[in-house]
């Protein structure tokens, strides 16, 4: 290398969206935080387009194998659906020469409808237009989708064979050209072509058919729907997520007590909870839909939701009964951003839910919220959903800035020694009072009285910059909306980090 053309180390110190001192993450870490907190829609500080462009640029800076591993991690560990497909499509634009892309598709396309979703994403990201906008498909994308076609049965295909999709199942078959592995599968492909797939037994198809019937009066219609919901619940074919999302509809249908009991028992069943892999905030959404319901049976269902979210917390690791922890939730203005365009769930909801899950597992814990100020709000251990609502009721008492340093200042000035300080935040911290106090400076001071303390930042927005320099031996960044983020706590105790875990994924 020429002595004149030397490399320049990229400056890590930057300004965040509020103009405060912040630190840039490595491309891999930044991509990870962006991916596991993305629904590909607008955030408070970043439009969907800005977010997508930033992730695309990061993908080009990261190793291709890491991008593939991250896609698999996002799909199989964090249970995300759209963003892994985006990663695969972006990877296909950059990578060639082997079957990395097709192997990744095999691991991220886990539902039949994701075949069509991947093709729509491919069309979008490759700016394909016109009648033949998907005519030139990447060979490795094609191979990966061929393998996907060989994994699903008639029921799985029929469930997602809809005429209102931009890329229909039949179109996908013609485009991908999968080779049938036997005569039975060839017959299945023929049914897709001829649109003769057997109508699947799903709650959507059953209720849709019922809605097209004629009834004598409103009471007769209500009775028919009550009977159908009873049948669906008794059949065992109503998926857990479908049951969770339809609890209000089931109550409004006025099904009998035994049916409500059966539905509640399934919702609260620990085995069903773990198998369903629901985001914890789904239980909060269901709870909020029901808590104002006047049906006399609603309390049975609400109790089941509490049982369910408690069950999801049972495997949380990284704590002993002697661990002293402070859990702080950011309820500043930027945390009021919805996680997606179609969701009423806010970032603060996710933070509060995850925080109360942790609170449920800690015996020596202090909890609170912060904005302009820090407020101590201690909660009982036996309620999670109720605690979330109670915590939120105090949000207007702390203001809407993000003075995260106030959390550490409280510990320091009161000489409170914690083993773990856990902050659920979008990491866009600043000082609204105009002083030079920052969370970085407060943490340095706090370590003088609590040298063994460890700070965990749970990033819920993935903007790419954090208020303390990373990596650090006593500060850890974890990101995501799933309770699976807690799996990292135990790993961290044993010297691993999230990137290590991602890089262990076999492709």
Write the layout of secondary structure elements.
Blueprint (H helix, E strand, L loop, with lengths): L12 E3 L5 E4 L2 H9 L12 H14 L2 H13 L5 H13 L5 H9 L4 H13 L13 H11 L4 H6 L9 H8 L6 H12 L8 H9 L6 H18 L4 H6 L1 H6 L4 H12 L1 H7 L3 H11 L7 H15 L11 E7 L16 H15 L2 E7 L3 E3 L8 H9 L11 H9 L6 E6 L13 H11 L4 E6 L5 E2 L8 E5 L7 H7 L4 H6 L4
Parallel strand pairs: 3-4, 3-6, 6-7, 7-9
Antiparallel strand pairs: 1-2, 2-8, 4-5
Helix pairs in contact: 1-2, 3-4, 3-5, 4-5, 4-6, 5-7, 11-12, 15-18, 17-18, 19-20, 21-22
Describe what you observe in this structure:
The structure is a single chain. This protein has 507 residues and is an alpha/beta fold. It folds into 3 domains: 13-194, no CATH class; 217-276 and 278-312, no CATH class; 324-503, von Willebrand factor, type A domain (Rossmann fold), CATH 3.40.50. The protein contains 24 helices and 9 strands. It has helices spanning 27-35, 48-61, 64-76, 82-94, 100-108, 113-125, 139-149, 154-159, 169-176, 183-194, 203-211, 218-235, 240-245, 247-252, 257-268, 270-276, 280-290, 298-312, 347-361, 385-393, 405-413, 439-449, 487-493, 498-503; strands at 13-15, 21-24, 324-330, 364-370, 374-376, 420-425, 454-459, 465-466, 475-479. Helix 22 links the parallel strand 6 (420-425) and strand 7. The protein is globular and about 70 Å long. It starts with 12 loop residues before the first strand and ends with a helix.
Key structural traits:
507 residues; alpha/beta; Rossmann fold; 3 domains; 6-stranded mixed sheet; 24 helices; 9 strands; 8% strand
């Amino acid at each position: 290398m020429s002595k004149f053309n030397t490399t320049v180390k990229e400056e890590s110190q930057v300004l965040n969206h509020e103009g405060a001192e912040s630190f840039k993450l490595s491309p891999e870490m930044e991509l990870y935080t962006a991916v596991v907190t993305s629904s590909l829609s607008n955030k408070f500080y970043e439009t969907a387009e800005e977010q997508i462009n930033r992730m695309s640029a990061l993908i080009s800076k990261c190793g291709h194998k890491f991008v593939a591993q991250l896609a698999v991690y996002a799909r199989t560990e964090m249970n995300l659906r759209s963003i892994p497909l985006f990663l695969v499509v972006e990877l296909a634009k950059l990578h060639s020469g082997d079957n990395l892309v097709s192997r990744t598709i095999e691991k991220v396309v886990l539902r039949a409808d994701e075949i069509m979703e991947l093709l729509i994403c491919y069309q979008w990201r490759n700016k394909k237009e016109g009648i033949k906008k998907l005519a030139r498909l990447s060979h490795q994308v094609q191979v990966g989708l061929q393998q996907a076609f060989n994994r699903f049965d008639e029921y799985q295909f029929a469930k997602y064979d809809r005429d209102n999709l931009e890329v229909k199942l039949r179109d996908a078959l013609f485009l991908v050209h999968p080779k049938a592995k036997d005569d039975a599968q060839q017959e299945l492909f023929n049914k897709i072509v001829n649109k003769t797939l057997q109508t699947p037994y799903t709650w959507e198809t059953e209720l849709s058919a019922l809605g097209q019937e004629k009834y004598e009066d409103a009471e007769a219609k209500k009775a028919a729907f009550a009977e159908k919901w009873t049948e669906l619940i008794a059949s065992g074919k109503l998926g857990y997520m479908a049951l969770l999302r339809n609890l209000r509809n089931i109550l409004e249908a006025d099904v009998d007590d035994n049916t409500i009991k059966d539905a509640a028992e399934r919702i609260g069943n620990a085995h069903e909870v773990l198998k369903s892999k629901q985001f914890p905030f789904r239980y909060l959404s269901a709870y909020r839909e029901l808590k104002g319901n006047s049906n006399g049976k609603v309390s049975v269902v609400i109790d089941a939701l509490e049982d369910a979210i408690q069950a999801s917390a049972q495997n949380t690791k990284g704590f002993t009964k002697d661990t002293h922890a402070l859990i702080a939730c950011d309820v500043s203005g930027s945390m009021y951003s919805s996680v997606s365009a179609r969701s009423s769930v806010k970032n603060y909801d996710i933070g509060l839910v995850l925080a109360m899950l942790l609170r449920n597992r800690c015996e020596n814990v202090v909890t609170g919220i912060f904005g302009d100020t820090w407020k101590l709000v201690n909660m009982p251990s036996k309620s999670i959903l109720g605690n979330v609502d109670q915590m939120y009721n105090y949000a207007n008492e702390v203001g809407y800035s993000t003075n995260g340093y106030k959390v550490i200042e409280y510990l320091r000035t009161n000489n409170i020694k914690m083993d773990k300080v856990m902050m659920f935040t979008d990491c866009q911290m600043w000082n609204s009072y105009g002083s030079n106090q920052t969370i970085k400076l407060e943490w340095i001071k706090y370590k003088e009285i609590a040298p063994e303390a460890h700070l965990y930042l749970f990033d819920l927005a993935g903007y790419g910059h954090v208020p303390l320099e990373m990596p650090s031996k006593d500060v850890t960044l974890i990101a995501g909306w799933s309770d699976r983020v807690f799996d990292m706590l135990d790993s961290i105790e044993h010297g691993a980090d999230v990137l290590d875990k991602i890089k262990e994924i076999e492709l």
